[in-house]
Amino acid sequence: MRFPAHIQVYVVGGAVRDRLLGLPVQDRDHVVVGATPEDMARLGFRPVGRDFPVFLHPETQEEYALARTERKTARGYKGFQVYASPEVTLEQDLIRRDLTINAMAEAEDGRIIDPYGGQRDLAAKVLRHVSAAFAEDPLRILRVARFAARFPDFGVAPETLELMRAMVRSGEIDALVPERVWQEISRGLMEGRPSRLIEVLRDCGALAKLLPEVDALFGVPQDPAKHPEIDTGVHLLRVLDWAAAQGHELPVRYAALVHDLGKGLTPRSRWPDHNGHEAAGIAAVRGVSTRLKVPTDCKELALTVARWHGEAHRADRLDAAGLLALLEATDAFRRPERFEQFLLACADDHHGRPGYETRPFSQAERLRQALTAARSVDAGAVAAAAPAGGIPKAIHAARTAAIAAALPS
To answer: Whose CA is closest to 161, among 204, 101, 210?
Structure first.
C-alpha cells in the first residue's frame, strides 16, 4: 500500500529486535507518524483499539498504531491518558516503550531508527529501561522478567533492577489485576528458560508480592540424599527448565511451578524430609490458582501433581493394590490424557535434580502399564457376573488382579 507523502510508517518493537538478533519474526507491529484516524479510514484501515488508535491493514491484518504519548493519571497499568496526533514524533512514541531493545524502528527503506541505544544493548545483552516512564507501569516488571526467560543470556541492567525494586517498595505493583499477572507469568513459563522469570522477580522483590508461596521455598532445605541441590527453590528452578527443555505444555509447566508449595508450609521439625508436604500443599496450590484466576486445566493438573507426585515417585515399590489406588486417586480411567500430563510433570520433578538428568523415571512406565492392564478388564462382563450391590468391589478386584498379572511384584 502506498501512503500519502505526509505519512511515515515504521515497523517497531519486537519485529525489529528479532530481525537484528537473527530470529524468526512472528508479528509485525507498525507506528504511523503524521496521520489522523480519518486518514487511516480513507486508506481502508479498520479501527480496533479501545484505549488508543490502532488499525488493521485491510489486506495483511497487521496492526498499525498512530504515534502517541502517554501521561500517568492514576496507579496501576491502566492509569494513563493517551494522546495521539499527527504532531507526535517517532522518537516521542518510542520513548514510552519498556526496554531499549524494544524501542527501535525500521523505516520503509530498511534504515534502523535507534534513538535510545537498543542496538548497543542487544550487542551487550542487556535489558535496560528506556526512560523514567518505565516506573509508571508495574506490568513492565513482569515483562522484564519474561524477556529474561526468553533471552536467558541477557542480564538486567543494574539501574533497571533498582528501579524495579523501587516500584515494588512503593506498592505500585499491588495495582496489577490477576488476569494480567497470570498472562505474563504464563507467557514466561512458556519461554525457553522459565527459571529466569522466577529469578528476576525474586531479585526485585516482586515474587514475594505476586507469588509468596513460591518465594517461601527458597532457603528451605530438602533431604540431600534425594535432592543434591538441597534448596527447594533451586530444585523448583531446575524442574521448570527441564519441563521447558522437553517442550511440555503450559499445564505441565504450571504444575512444575507449584508442585512443592507444601514444603514451604511443613514445620521445621519435619525438615528435611517434609513428610506430608503433598497434602499440605493442596490449599496453597488452590489459593494461588484462585487468586491468579488460573485456567481450569492448569489448576486441576497442578492440584493432582501437588497431592500425588510423592506416590508416583514410589510407584516402583507399590503392589497391584497400591498402583490401582493411585490410578483411581488421579482419575486416570476417566481422564487418561490428564494422567499422562501428570506423569510428565512427575518425570520433570525426577529429572530436575543434579545427577538425575539421565536416570530413567521407570515409575512412569510402570504406572502406564498398570493403567493399560486395568483398562483391559471388561467391566461390563464383571458387573453382569457380580452379585447385587457388589459390582464396584468386583470391578476393583478384577482390575487389581489384572495389574498383578501384568506387572512384576
So the answer is: 204
Residue pair 261/217 in contact (Cβ under 8 Å)? The answer is yes
17 belongs to an annotated ligand binding site: yes
Q: Are 17 and 28 in contact (CB under 8 A)?
A: no
CATH classification of 1-131 is 1.10.3720.10, yes or no?
Answer: no
The tens digit of pLDDT for each residue in 1-58 reads: 789 989 999 999 999 999 999 999 988 999 999 999 999 999 999 999 776 789 999 9
27 among annotated binding-site residues? yes
Cα-only R_g, the chain: 26
Instruction: Enumerate helices (H) and strands (E) in the chain, giving the number of each.
Output: 19, 11
According to DSSP, the β-strands at 46-47 and 54-56 are antiparallel
Q: What is the dihedral of CA 90, 96, 102, 108, to 10 degrees?
A: -10
Question: What CATH number does domain 211-409 carry, 1.10.3470, 3.40.50, 1.10.3210, 1.10.1740?
Answer: 1.10.3210
Identify the pLDDT of residue 199: 98
Residues 273-300 have a mean pLDDT of 97
Strands 63-66 and 54-56: antiparallel
The answer to whether 29 is a known ligand-binding residue is yes
Residue pLDDT, tens place only, 290-310: 999 999 999 999 999 999 999
Beta strands at 80-84 and 68-72: parallel, antiparallel or unpaired:
antiparallel
CA-to-CA distance for 164 and 146, rounded, in angstroms?
14
Amino acid, res. 145: A
| Prior bond of 272 cis (ω within 30°) | yes
